[in-house]
TrEMBL record:
Record carries keyword Membrane: no
Cofactors (names): pyridoxal 5'-phosphate
Matches recorded under NCBIfam families: hisC (TIGR01141)
InterPro entries: Aminotransferase_I/II_large (IPR004839), HisP_aminotrans (IPR005861), HistidinolP_aminotransfase (IPR050106), PyrdxlP-dep_Trfase (IPR015424), PyrdxlP-dep_Trfase_major (IPR015421), PyrdxlP-dep_Trfase_small (IPR015422)
Family that this chain belongs to: Belongs to the class-II pyridoxal-phosphate-dependent aminotransferase family. Histidinol-phosphate aminotransferase subfamily.
SUPFAM superfamilies hit by this protein: PLP-dependent transferases
Pfam assignment, any one: Aminotran_1_2
Enzyme class: transferase
Pathway: Amino-acid biosynthesis; L-histidine biosynthesis; L-histidine from 5-phospho-alpha-D-ribose 1-diphosphate: step 7/9
Keywords tagged on the record: Amino-acid biosynthesis, Aminotransferase, Histidine biosynthesis, Pyridoxal phosphate, Transferase
Name this polypeptide is given: Histidinol-phosphate aminotransferase
Domain of life of the native organism: Bacteria
Species whose genome carries this gene: Cognatishimia coralii
Catalytic reaction equation(s): L-histidinol phosphate + 2-oxoglutarate = 3-(imidazol-4-yl)-2-oxopropyl phosphate + L-glutamate
Lineage summary: Bacteria, Pseudomonadati, Pseudomonadota, Alphaproteobacteria, Rhodobacterales
Length: 361
């Protein structure tokens, strides 16, 4: 009989739990469980998608030059320092695979994105979980956890599922305090929702140990397309391109994403709608008696009195066809993560939570 030799760490991986997308017996669910853009991609993006990828028998380009040039132009960055991947998840994977292995440590934080420990185990490294301070990344705690084995520190800024943001000077202090062996990965999946925030791009340019990742899955409404990118020092990009599969992205993905990044007007409209509705929904939830921190993202972390109350509210929302995300697996059992949907979805959430709290009281 074949003996299956699984690589070290793989069996430690807890399978990723995606947001629920269907409810038995409900045809029209309000899906607020995966931080997707409720409006979908822009018209220009949809048109580019419809016109792209017709040469099914041809391989796509391998250097992603067109998309990298568009990203560089729009963001004022150096195209030579950009790498594109199948979602930012794949870029994060390139980083883990390239810079960490058995015997090494990868730091992530208490309420950090669940892919970080998965990626650490997948490359045989040891994930090290560090406490946060009131749901915000704690720089001192991370620096205290670093040692000569630390290779990568993953933080999302803004954070998921906390929706909080670490101040720029704190991020710089973290980068400067890391041991020489370690790289700081700033995961900017939600960066566009914060007006005027560069996701850490300037820090990447000013330091040799910082990598930024970004995605088309959130504000650009392209979660289904699977495309993300990273910005890093040239030497790091050179390494990431060696592990990247040459044909990791199809022309459909590349051309659609290029149209998306060029449509900044749509991006700004999505951000302003998100800001407006996020503020409204946060206030409505607070008025209903739920605790809510300021959100820097396209979701709200609603904090209830107990895990039981959070679970009951989740049931009450489900009874109305509304799907949100339980975040007990992120160390937040008394919370629900609610994506900021369109106006109608926000009103339905507010109404349902209000009714729920009234019955509970
Ligand atoms: N980082 C964070 C913090 C996220 O929330 C997500 C999506 N849930 C990702 C990365 C990955 O996004 P994608 O692979 O779709 O780019």
């Amino acid at each position: 009989m074949t003996q299956i030799n699984v690589q070290p760490g793989i069996m430690e991986i807890a399978l990723y739990q995606g947001g629920q997308s269907a409810l038995a017996g409900v045809t029209e669910v309000v899906k607020l469980s995966s931080n997707e853009n409720p409006y979908g991609p822009s018209e220009a993006t949809k048109a580019a998608f419809a016109q792209s990828g017709l040469a099914l028998h041809r391989y796509p380009g391998t250097d992603h030059a067109g998309l990298r040039a568009a990203i560089a132009e729009v963001h004022g960055l150096d195209a030579e320092r950009i790498v594109c991947g199948v979602g930012s998840d794949e870029v994060l994977q390139f980083v883990a695979q390239s810079f960490a292995g058995p015997g090494d440590e990868i730091i992530y934080t208490e309420h950090g994105f669940s892919m970080y420990p998965i990626l650490a185990h997948a490359c045989g490294a040891t994930p090290v979980k560090v406490a946060e301070k009131e749901r915000v990344v704690d720089v001192d705690a991370i620096l205290a956890a670093c040692n000569a084995k630390t290779r990568i520190v993953f933080i999302a800024n803004p954070g998921n599922p906390t929706a909080t943001m670490l101040a720029a000077d704190e991020v710089a202090r973290l980068a400067d305090g890391l041991p020489a062996s370690a790289l700081l990965v700033l995961d900017g999946a939600y960066a566009e929702f914060v007006e005027g925030y560069d996701g850490g791009a300037a820090l990447v340019e000013a330091r040799s140990n910082v990598i930024m990742t970004r995605t088309f899955s959130k504000i650009y409404g392209l979660g289904g397309l699977r495309i993300g990118w990273g910005y890093a020092p040239k030497e790091v990009i050179d390494v990431l391109n060696r592990v990247r599969q040459p044909f990791n992205l199809s022309d459909v993905q590349l051309q659609t994403a290029e149209a998306a990044v060029r449509d900044q007007e749509f991006m700004r409209w999505c951000r302003s709608e998100n800001t407006r509705l996020g503020a409204w929904l946060s206030e409505a939830l607070r008025a209903a008696g739920v605790e809510v921190d300021e959100s820097f993202t396209n979701f709200i972390l609603a904090r209830f009195a107990s895990p039981e109350e959070a679970d009951s509210c989740d049931e009450a929302l489900k009874a109305e066809g509304i799907l949100v995300r339980k975040v007990g697996g992120y160390g937040l059992p008394n919370c629900l993560r609610i994506t900021i949907g369109d106006e109608r979805a926000c009103r339905r959430v507010a109404h349902t939570v209000k009714q729920f709290k009234r019955v509970e009281a």
